[in-house]
Structure to design on (364 residues):
């Protein structure tokens, strides 16, 4: 036993000196555990099991997050953003697909796309148009040193990265029968709680990665038949960003987000922001400009335990989710985004201000 531990110690020591391969994506999603465990505010459920597996035939490896930016072709600036019945549109750092097919024809292929790329789905609601993956590990970020390449699967299970990702897919139906598809990313990273001792770690959110969103969107474009690899990279690089502006204002004594843009553009931007910032969209009514969301506001006065402690131990003081209505109203070219309570009355000022600030930070 001692010799085996010494051998494993040597493996870890050597692998720590290697360079991570960040030029590929190879996700493996967590296995679901039972019973369901409580999770901290703003996070969808993780599982106790930290070993990651892939459904049969679900491994995917391709170019890295910045693959679209790496296409240094003299024709990239004039490359078409429309291919077949699919085109790419862009607003700031947000990109999405517009496909001339109804959403019900795209749902199953999109679900297949995620499972083929190594993910399990925790939300699969076709009527709501929302699909969300489990937290997953990008195995391509593991050290590709000589020992690991030699031993291969024999010690693969003991390797783990310090990052987890999840993706949410949103489909919006258009009046002309087409469908808009958005992909949003959320990430977590494991860090030392005490940088001096380095004896305990905690999980904390890490910034959204727009380029990772774009890469997964590009791959989905290929899956849905809109382009091949080269065409999709050129189309992604050719999409021109539209300048975006978001400010915080006050209407009737309540904080709001002010957007100088049309309703259609504001509606899709707000929806993606809600996905990115941890809200759970339970329903939406585009004709009325309302998102019905669930959210757990953090309590800055309570000294919270670590992330893993919250997962593995039920906290009797944990706050129950609170429901809100996020309204999007446009007059002319000006749009106002406000926060209401569950019944449609004004939300508590402190909650409204916190939520408005979170949305405005992402919309800028």
């Amino acid at each position: 036993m001692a010799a085996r531990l010494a051998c494993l110690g040597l493996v870890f020591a050597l692998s720590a000196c290697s360079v991570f391969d960040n030029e590929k994506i190879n996700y493996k999603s967590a296995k679901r555990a039972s019973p369901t465990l409580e999770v901290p505010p703003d996070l969808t459920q993780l599982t106790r099991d930290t070993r990651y597996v892939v459904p049969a035939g679900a491994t995917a490896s391709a170019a890295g997050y910045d693959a679209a930016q790496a296409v240094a072709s003299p024709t990239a600036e004039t490359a078409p953003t429309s291919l077949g019945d699919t085109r790419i549109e862009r607003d700031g750092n947000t990109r999405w697909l517009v496909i001339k097919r109804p959403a019900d024809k795209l749902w199953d292929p999109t679900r297949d796309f995620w499972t083929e790329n190594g993910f399990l789905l925790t939300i699969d609601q076709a009527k709501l148009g929302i699909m969300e993956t489990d937290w997953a590990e990008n195995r391509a970020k593991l050290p590709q040193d000589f020992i690991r390449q030699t031993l291969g699967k024999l010690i693969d299970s003991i390797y783990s990265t310090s990052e987890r990702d999840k993706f949410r897919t949103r489909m919006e139906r258009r009046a002309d029968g087409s469908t808009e598809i958005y992909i949003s990313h959320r990430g977590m990273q494991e860090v030392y709680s005490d940088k001096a001792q380095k004896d305990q770690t905690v999980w904390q959110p890490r910034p959204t990665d727009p380029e990772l969103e774009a890469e997964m969107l590009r791959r989905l474009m290929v899956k849905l038949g809109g382009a091949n690899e080269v065409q999709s990279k050129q189309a992604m690089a050719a999409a021109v960003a539209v300048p975006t502006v978001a400010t915080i204002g006050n209407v009737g004594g309540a904080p709001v987000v002010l957007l100088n843009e049309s309703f259609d553009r504001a509606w899709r931007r707000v929806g993606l922001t809600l996905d990115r910032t941890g809200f759970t969209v339970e329903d939406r009514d585009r004709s009325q400009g309302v998102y019905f969301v669930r959210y757990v506001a953090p309590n800055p006065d309570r000294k919270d335990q670590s992330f893993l402690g919250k997962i593995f131990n039920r906290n009797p003081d944990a706050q129950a989710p609170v429901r809100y209505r996020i309204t999007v109203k446009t007059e002319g070219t000006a749009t106002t985004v406000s926060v209401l309570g569950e019944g449609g009355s004004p939300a508590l000022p402190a909650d409204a201000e916190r939520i408005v600030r979170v949305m405005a930070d992402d919309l800028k």
About this structure: The first strand starts at residue 27 and ends at 30. Residues 349-363 form the longest helix (15 residues). The chain has a mean pLDDT of 74. The domain at 21-241 is CATH 3.30.530.50 (Alpha-D-Glucose-1,6-Bisphosphate; Chain A, domain 4).
